[in-house]
Amino acid sequence: MKAGTLLLSPAMYDDMPHAPSRPARPVTDPASARPPLDWSAWPLPLLAGLLPLVATLVAYTLSVRLGLVEACMPLIDGCISISRAARHELPNHLFRALLLPAAALQALCWLLCGAWLRTLGAAPTRKLRALPWLGLAAALFLVLYGTFLGTEGEAYRWMRRYGVVLYFGGTCIAMLIVSDAAQGLALQARHVARALRALCIALPLLGLANVFAPLLHVDAATRAALQNSAEWWGGLVFTLFFVAIAWLWHATRFKIRFAIRCDD
Q1: Which pTM was predicted?
Q2: Which residues fall within 8 angstroms of residue 16, CB to CB, at 6 or more apart?
Q3: Is the dihedral of CA 135, 14, 251, 43 positive or negative?
């Protein structure tokens, strides 16, 4: 009896100048070989970045229409946080329905980022080996945040609060690792690679603004508005980073290879 095995691996076109040569594998049983399927990988980070943005905009728009929150420009006015915009009723359900799949896609992207960078010639450093685990942990904290958003109780509030903080922190570190590794590679889209570094610089600055906002000699409403605005800008930076990764994966023709192997 033969058992089927599904193999999933990153693949690059062999005509890429930076693609390492690989020895051909002998096929002992032509009947057991199946032609591999190569799928373009760039839609994964594109969806991983856009789904949270769409979820936030849909939740906020519905909350305004339902009279749950006031209408404003959150990026500028900071009148409301992302969590409050998606905390109640239908906006909460739609927000979570989009956010949880996005967390799974982001985890998958971080798992593939290391393989993509190594395919382009990046050294297998300790940071690069830790990237998949760090990205997976960040995605799990996003799941924790999305799961308990809209619930009541001190324990639930604690999990929501620290879920989003640890998600932001873990994703920021993963972004720094990818950006640092991409700088030393001979990428065709160099301007996009430089944009990764700029986004990584902007994110800690937003975090510092959020941390030091309570120290400013302003009223509580102004401090809350500054923190809310920083949160919205931080979410936008995440979206732009994943969109930039999608652009680079498309430019380098990064693919996922599916193959089925039948073993005796």
Answers
A1: 0.79
A2: 252, 253
A3: negative
Distance CA 94, CA 165 (A): 22
The pLDDT tens digits of the residues spanning 30-60 come to 444 566 677 888 999 999 999 999 999 999 9
The CA dihedral of 7, 8, 10, 14, to the nearest 10 degrees, is: 40
Return contacts of 122-127, CB within 8 angstroms, 24+ apart: 122/181, 122/182, 122/184, 122/185, 125/181, 127/177, 127/180, 127/181
Among left, alpha and beta (phi > 0; psi -120 to 50; other), residue 57 is alpha
C-beta atoms surrounding 131 within 10 Å: 22
Helix (H) or strand (E) holding 101: helix 89-119
Q: Can you tell me the distance from the alpha carbon of 247 to that of 118, in angstroms, rounded to the nearest whole number?
A: 18
Assess whether pLDDT exceeds 80 at residue 86: yes
Q: Give backbone dihedrals phi and psi of 90, rounded to 5 degrees, phi first.
A: -60, -40
Cβ–Cβ under 8 Å, residues 184 and 122: yes
Whether the CB-CB separation of 198 and 46 falls below 8 Å is answered with no
Which helix (DSSP H) or strand (DSSP E) does residue 8 occupy? strand 3-12
CA distances from 154 to 48, 159, 160 (A): 30, 9, 10
CA–CA distances in Å: residue 168 to residues 236, 252, 263: 12, 28, 44
* Cα–Cα distance, 95 to 147 (Å, whole number): 10
